[in-house]
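Field reference: "sequence" (input) and "structure" (output). Example, Tad domain-containing protein:
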Amino acid sequence: MMNKLKSLFKKEQGNVIVLTSLAFTALIGLTGLVIDGGSLYMTKTHLQKVANATALSGAQELTGETETIKKIVDDVLNSHHEIASLEQLEIENHSITVELKKPVHFNFITLFGFDTLDVRAQATARLGTMGRAYGAAPLGIDESIPLEYGVIYDLKVDEQGVNIGNFGILRLEGPGAQVYEDNLKYGFDGELKVGDIVYTQPGNIAGKTREAVDYLVTTCDSPEDRTCRRVLLIPVIKPQHKQGGSMPVEIKGFAYFYLTEQDSEDDKTVRGYFLERAGTGFEEPGASNKGAYTIRLSE
């Protein structure tokens, strides 16, 4: 009887050792999954953020030279220490796609025969026609005027409202020459969008225009400066029927205009050129494409 009990005890002791070994192995496996799985998740999250930031930054220059875009991509990746992760870069007319790949080295899962796993992230940023934005200048350009980018324009600013070939002075924030000057210097702080009806501002405020332009042309030296205040966001407008001294106009889209100089003290014009540019804003259906774009990530 005692021999049988001893034999049974030895068998159960062996079973406990086996079960303990299996449990310990499972515990190591779970620990490995938690630690290495967390490393995979963190790497994937980081890599996706870098891909998004790189695509969005590169998309800002899609209206420019390819080499400029590539330099920006390299700069962004270098700033995140991920230049070695760039697997592919595709630059098309109005889109940029960034693909990143980074190997993650395991610590615990190597016990089960897995050493590394490649983590991938991809982001595509596209340009869309701007149809809603903040910060517009209180000037409007008739949508019927064909725009040539980079060509110098002398655009009239006078008390006659909107005429073909002229800017129209827009009353975006109530009447008054001082309000107009502030909006021209710093941009209208409200939102404008396609379909909005605003009114021209009658009266001769060429002097205030000159003062604002003289100030703006001293704020930067090049339209390539993304913070350059000489680059004005101009509503593209369609004149409606005139009402008294002002005229209602419908906003049809936006354009960018770079101020070069005030033409002269006697002439009621501003001088500069239109340019294609991606800026801060939103797409709206039916917006007129006059070279002002917004950027969005594409799924």
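Confidence is low (pLDDT under 50) at residues 161-166.
Helices lie at 2-59, 66-79, 177-186, 206-216.
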